[in-house]
Design a protein that fits this description.
- By secondary structure, the chain is of the alpha+beta class.
- Helix content is 49%, strand content 9%.
- The chain has a five-stranded mixed beta sheet with strand order 5-2-6-7-8.
- β6 and β7 form a beta hairpin.
- The longest helix has 24 residues.
- The radius of gyration is 23 Å and the shape is globular.
- The protein starts with 40 loop residues before the first helix and ends with a helix.
- The protein binds iron/sulfur cluster.
Amino acid sequence: MKNLTYSKNDPENGCDSCSSKTCDSCGPVPSDNLFHPVFSRRNFGRTVLAASAGALLIGCGKSGKPAGEAVAKADSLAAGITPDPILVQESKGPILTLLSEFYKMGPGPSSSHTMGPMRITYDFYQRISKLPAEQLNKATGLKVHLFGSLSATGKGHGTDRASLAGLLGKSPADCPPQFLDDLATNPDKSYPVTLGPKTLNLTLKDIIFDATKGDFHHPNTMTCKLLAGPEVLYELEYYSVGGGFIEWKGYVIPEKGQPKYPYQHANELKKYLIDDNIPLGKLLLENEMAISGKSEKEIWEFLDQVAEVMIRGVETGLTVESVLPGPIKLHSKAAGMQLMKVNKGEAGRAITTVASYGFAMGEENARGHIIVTAPTAGSAGIIPAVLKSLRDIKVPTQKIREGFLAAAAIGYLCKHNATLSGAEGGCQAEVGVGSSMGAAMIAQARGEGPKVVSNAAESALEAHLGMTCDPVAGYVQVPCIERCAYGAVKAWTAYCIASEENPQERRVDLDTTIAAMALTAKEMNSKYKETSEGGLAVSVVLC
Ligand code: SF4
């Protein structure tokens, strides 16, 4: 059961204890995390059977709750055991996740070891840029110290170049890939950074791989210093807490508002949409505004920026042919697939096109270029592929924005009621959720009603249930990149099925499938949860 409490923040059992070198899938365990080791395997198996049987017998959604959940709860109580929080979630409260917490922009391949550090040093750059000119005039240098896991595994992740890029004032959202490549290939080159009246020259040597062991506040700790010779003019300790999130000494969690339309499950959401006739885009926008305090304009601007970063990533990935970094020596495929040397007919061309977009962004992630978590870095190729294919057929910007909202809602539901972490739930939680989000995005952007949107998301997630996480050599390349391509194609497939069937006749609803994913995650052997101890990770021999 050890893996069930897996946490990136846990130095004993956390991300650093697995053999993955570049995956960021194990984000911080959210406060609403479901994976509490309440059951023995035997009791758990009993509940799974009851839940499955109940879902089949009772049908879905009539009570506003997943059928499996209700039956499993009854079964648990009858057996005299504590109801598992994975199935009984009344106390969790409404979903409060925000778009900016979900779609995070920055360099791949790891949100904790590359994206987080770059966001940290960019934050430090912005802080020191605002210091008084007389203080900046005294400055002679900048230093970043990496501690704990960032120091132990940072070289493989490209933590140093990401940190230097942020320190040089490059924004994690739009740092050009050429700049990141230049930092990697010219380790001795010095780069200027201007801070008010002062220009300093920095190199990768200013990013110091410091102590790997110690009494750190967090396993991923960094300190950033502005120096005047030996004197420290300004210093701040930071933490890359997982999933691209950053904190610092004295950090206070920002307060959130309450959603206008609170929901925890898809069936509650559907009630607003179907019974009250509230459009999905309007509901999600108003919730986002209420929770974040942002204006509609700010929210659309954010989503437009997300879209641009994704499109830029796909377009870059389609033009570059290279061997990807790391021991696998994997050749990129996206650019070659664009040529379509073989005549495949209309269906083959469409599938090749969508798959090539998924490859393009997945390969960009592996190169350490700028990506958007959707929901994670490992699955970051799916939504950009869906987006590009929607742009190809001239879907209007406003429809695409609403598609992003629908995709996020699916991600929130999966995060709230299951997991988004490969380390907790295998690849079904990353690529499966990404594909499900993509299916919802297509359906919403194409103007489908809420039932079709939900059915499309359900269909795509269902098609990924049980998928394990087994990255070869611990790198987010094999099978991750190809799975992004499949995830995008399956998103389209799910949309095509959902939009052609009679929506009322679908026998499995989204909540049930999310619950099934959570149950499958809990039963999955830890070898298949990003540990690189099973599946392809041990079957593929690297020469
Ligand atoms: S196999 Fe899936 S879950 Fe695992 S690292 Fe790759 S993309 Fe992430």
